[in-house]
Amino acid sequence: MIKNEHKKHYDITIVGGGLAGRLMLAVIINCGAFDEKKLCWINTDNENFRDVRVSFINYKNFIKMKKNILFNISSKDYSVIDKIELHNTNEKYPLKLHDLNNHGIIIRNDILKKNIKFSEKKVNIYKSKVISTRFDAFKRYLFLNDGTEIKSALVISADGNLSPLRELCKIKYFNNKLDHTIITGYLECKNFENSTAKQIFLKDNFIGLLPLKNEKNLINFVWSVDNKILNTNRIDYHNQIIQMLNKFFFKDKLIFNLPRSKEDKFKRVQTYPINVKFVNKPFKERIILIGDAAHTIHPLAGQGFNLSIEDCFDMVKCLKNAKFVGRDFGTLSLLKTYNNMRKTRKNFITLATTLIFYVFSKKNDQLNDIINFNIEKIEKTSLKDIFKFLAKGY
What is the distance between the alpha carbons of residues 339 and 343, in angstroms, rounded to a whole number? Predict the structure, then answer.
């Protein structure tokens, strides 16, 4: 590990120690096309923090990761999802999306991060945050808090939703504050199918239920709740969601309880506001945004991390093509090519999840009846393949 070097020169610098940043570096290293000594990783993440939230990785992206990076993950560490059920208030029955191959997998973020592997001994790693940046015709300069100056042909910024680098570079974006807060944690349910994920649309809130194979009877919940409810009521999150779910699934004999695990990580609840951030041009001179820095969406359909995975592989595809023809990694034409590759998919997922959010969050009783009527019709037609397309990624 390198500390407090005054000036260093690299071909590519990756900023961000989260899942997207780590995956970006792993894909670059494991493709074997780049000199690892000319790669730099600025990782200021707290190594002691364990993110026990979960991610859904669609089938296409899971296979891509297994083939292209050191990802020797055990099957006991993830749940294979071959059915997704979409539930609605006063429904006759849910919309069931089956897939013979499977829709994808559900895995805890800390396990996922641990299993995205590469040799850190060969990579130049800095633990100090970026406090300013500038560029010239040939390089992007990053100035770190510890006095280090890093010079790179290209900077790949994977520094998250709030993205300090996006702000430092004054990259424009659209920010839409949704009137919901995300609450996530764990519940216990004995007869919940490990191969089924559920999305429940209730009045004023939505709940995603994601089973964990390696933790007995534990279900991760992702609860999107209207801020008006949070602001007017003091809510015991666990008890409130247990009451709602037990009432909703009474007919299915699903009973939810507090997690009995002795580990504190499964008893904690995390909350965060949800904003949609849309970056039409996620690049400037010699810098490109990926992951949540480039697109933040509502967690409906679980496509946020899938977009990040696709960002990483498409970015490497562009970089390999550039190296093959001897092209500068940081040219605007290359960054525009990458952006054009990502634009359609990113725009579709952002629009689809935001539209679903507004349709279900603003519904009245009449609209709810219409939705239930059409779910009954959709179940009998190929229209439900649209929902499969959204979930599976292609």
Answer: 6
Res. 164 pLDDT band, cuts 50 70 90: very high
Determine what percent of the chain falls in helix, strand and coil, rounding each to the nearest 5. 40, 30, 30
Q: Which two tokens stand for residue 265?
A: 């990580």
Two tokens, residue 110: 């800390």
Residue 297 domain-assigned (yes or no): yes
Where is pLDDT greater, at 334 or 388?
Answer: 334
Helix (H, G, I), strand (E, B) or coil at 253: coil
| Domain encompassing residue 340 | 7-51+118-175+275-352
- Which are the contacts of 227, defined by CB distance < 8 A and separation ≥ 6? 179, 180, 181
Work out the average pLDDT over 230-258: 90
CA 385, 108, 313: angle at the middle one, nearest 5?
A: 60
Gap between the Cα atoms of 118 and 370, Å rounded: 51
* pLDDT of residue 160 exceeding 90: yes
Which two structure tokens, joined as six digits, stand for 107?
């895995």
Please give the single-letter amino acid code of residue 138. F
Q: Is 241 exposed, middle or buried (0-12, 13-18, 19+ CB in 10 A)?
A: buried
In whole angstroms, give the CA distance from residue 294 to residue 208.
24
Q: Which residues of 206-223 are buried (b: 16+ CB within 10 A; e: fewer)?
A: bbbbbbbbebebbbbbbb
Answer whether residue 361 is part of any domain.
Answer: no
Q: Domain count of the chain?
A: 1
Q: Does the structure show a pLDDT above 90 at 89?
A: no
Q: Among 290, 277, 256, which residue's Cα sits nearest to residue 188? A: 256
The angle at the Cα of 344, spanning 66 to 357, to the nearest 5 degrees, equals: 90
Does residue 243 form part of some domain? Answer: no
With b for 16 or more beta-carbon neighbours within 10 A and e for fewer, the 250-274 pattern comes to eeeebebeebeeeeeebeeeeeeeb
In a domain, 239, yes or no: no
Res 393 pLDDT > 60: no
In the numeric block, which tokens belong to residue 342?
């990502």
